[in-house]
Each structure stands twice: as C-alpha cells, then as structure tokens.
Amino acid sequence: MSRVLITGAAGRLGRSTVAWFLARGHDVVAVDRVALDATSEAAGHAGAAPRTVVADLTDADRAAQVVAEARPDAIVHLAAIAVPFSAPEPTIFAVNTAMAFNVCQAGADVGVDAVVVASSPTPIGYGNPRGWTPRYLPLDEDHPLEPWHAYGLSKVVLEETVRAFARAAGDRTRFHAVRPCYVIAPEEWAGAPTQQGHTVRERLLDPALSAVALFNYVDARDAAALFECLVTAGDEVPNGEVFFAAAPDALATAPLAELLPAFHPGTTTAATALTGDAPAFTAAKAQRLLGWTARHTWRHELHDTTDLLTTARAAAPTAPAQEG
Prior knowledge:
Blueprint: E1 3-7, H1 12-23, E2 27-32, E3 51-54, H2 60-70, E4 74-77, H3 89-110, E5 114-118, H4 150-169, E6 174-180, E7 183-184, H5 200-205, H6 207-211, E8 218-219, H7 220-232, E9 242-245, H8 256-263, H9 284-290, H10 298-301, H11 306-311
Parallel strand pairs: 1-2, 1-4, 2-3, 4-5, 5-6, 6-9, 7-8
C-alpha cells in the first residue's frame, strides 16, 4: 500500500478519511493545526495509527517542510475553513486559497503520484438571496459556476489551482478535485449533531434545514472511498478532473420536484426532472470514470425511518444558515 498524507485530519471529513485509509492498509500521515483527539476514529484503526503532524498550511515554507519530510506517495487535502460565513470573507478566501496552493506546490515539488483536493458544490451558486436558476437538474460537473460568497469563490480558485498544476505536471503528478456534498459522519446517523447542529432526523423532518443545500448529502466514508479511488487511479483518468461526491438519493422524504420550488423558486422548471427520490446532484461522472458509487443512504443508515416517512412536514421557506 501507499503512504498518504491527509490534511485537515482532525475535522469531520478528515477523521473518517484517515480511518478509511488506515483500514485499507495505507501508511497515513495526518496533518492538522490541532493534534488528533486520541479517542477519535482517526487516531487509530484495528491496531494501526497515523503519524500525526501539527502544522499551519497557510505558511508555504511549513507546508513544503511537512510534505518533504513525510515523502508521501499521495496527498488528500481536506484542510479549509469549511462553512460559508463562519469567518470574515477576506479570511475565508485567503486561508482556503493559500492552503490549496501551498499543498499543491509542495506535492509537485516532491513529485508525489497524486494530489486530491476537497472542493465544494457551493460554486454552483445556489442559495443566492438575489435568486438562482439552474440551467438544468440534476447538477453535474459541467454546470456553469456562479459563486456569490467568499467560500464558493475560494473553491473556484481551488479548482483552477488544481487544473493549473495538472497542466504543468503533465504525467508526473495527477491533480484532482472532489466536491463532497453535505458530509454526514458515521456517528451522525446515530444521533450526533451534524455540521449545522441539527440531527439527520431533524433535517428530514423539517425540509427547511436541508433546503439551503438543495437536500444534498454524502456519507463521509463514501467520500473517503472516492479519495482513495483517485489516489490509486492511473493515467486512464485525465489529469485535472473534478468530481461530485453525492449520495444516490436526496436527503428528503418527498420528491425534490415538489420541495425545491418551495424554497428555491428559480428551480421550478428544472426540478420537474427530479422524480421519486432523485437528488439534485449526480455523481455519474465518478461512476463512469472510476466505478465509484456512494454506498450509504439515509434510508439504510437510520435505524427507524417509519415515523419520518409518515410525519415529515413541509415547512414554510425560510432563510437558514449557509452551508456547503
């Protein structure tokens, strides 16, 4: 197996990603601004444990040092300010873009096999208080980008950074970006609060809570599996590609053809294509090029869905907090 350096290792997605790579026999170097919680799943798995490094990757010299000393075969870059409006706009943009550039540069300098960078669906532009109309649904990687806040803009720059390094690297190092949908960690299926403080059950019972993210989601383990697919992929996948990591259904108890127009009036026409439990985002590209499909869905992960399917309510449109 390979040595994989994972940044943002102490975060919600990072913990599951570290655990995933450890469980599959990879040698993991876990990097974050804070030390890993010794009780978290990222701290060790089945007798294996990552080598941990505390570092601020906005410092280009420090990022280069960490990668040069680790000598990884691949890098999975997850470190970022992960929620829109959770810090001042200039800070979000500066931190996210600097870390992505520094990590890509460090990987290129060492000549790692692959650098996989976590982006976001938010550059698509949904949630704009001035209105948003998709060109079509479900959304794929070819849909035009219309970022309207610093977080979404930072992810556009991140993806262009990945493409620039891919063009410069040729066949030496593969650079790819993944847009994970709303990440749900394994413990959150059992009732732990999600990123916005609500449980998964609460998000299903009140559509307003998930509407801001177009009812998208992905299990953290499925996102980690996609990262591994890209780390181990060969030249059959064109360099510089971007992939959605999305569950095959929506985080909703009613069809999005009904729900989306209630919260996003500009989606009324395009949403007619989303019948049954079809999601607003498609991961067909990852299936086609990598054979990846999300395995975990809320219908299988929640222990009892009977009450959800019978008592879910259609809440009036509100203006929930922004999320990825």
